[in-house]
Specification:
membrane, 6 helices, five-stranded antiparallel beta sheet, alpha+beta, transmembrane helix, transmembrane
Amino acid sequence: MIDFFASITIALIVVMTVVIFLSNQRQAHIMKQMRFVLEDWYQSQMRDRREAYRKEIFMPDALQWLGSQVNLKIVDQGRRFENPPALELIAGEGVRLVVSPLSNRELRAAVRKIESKTRKVSKLVEPLLGSQPAKVQVVERSNATVHEWFEVEIETAGKMLGLNWMGLKALYFYMIPVQTNEEHIPLISFDLENLKLQIRSVFTTALNWVKQRFAKASG
């Protein structure tokens, strides 16, 4: 008799375990479906808000918009690079502004590879990030630092400038001091003076040698 009740108890425990397991599985499936529904609803809401903000954007000049991100007034557009992606701008404050979706480390690594291959040409053209890295100021502008729809403004500016800046959520602004002519003059003048001294020394030596030979011949 005891064995019979023990068997019934074990059977009931097994049945209850199976029922609880199936119930949990059903609830998990329902929760998963609810999560998918909520995610779709959220994405739909975000798309609607993004499109609404896109219609509100007023950007008559993409270059001036880029300069305004770091309080600079752009006066001219410089070089444009596809690989690495970068745009060079000239500001009225004696600053070159380089804008890129690449971070400081990524852009410098990419530029270093290119400039090492064109070492002869790089001597004639100012490096993209300048020759004094310590003086370069880098500012990040992104969804996190500006506002949640900053990516829409990036996309708008990219389209106006003919750049493939789709899907970007951040831009990096590199402010590089323009190298003035005065910074080059000391090096050039030093080389010229040294060259003049060398030519004068060679001329004097040659003249003395000619005089000595002429004196001996006359004697």
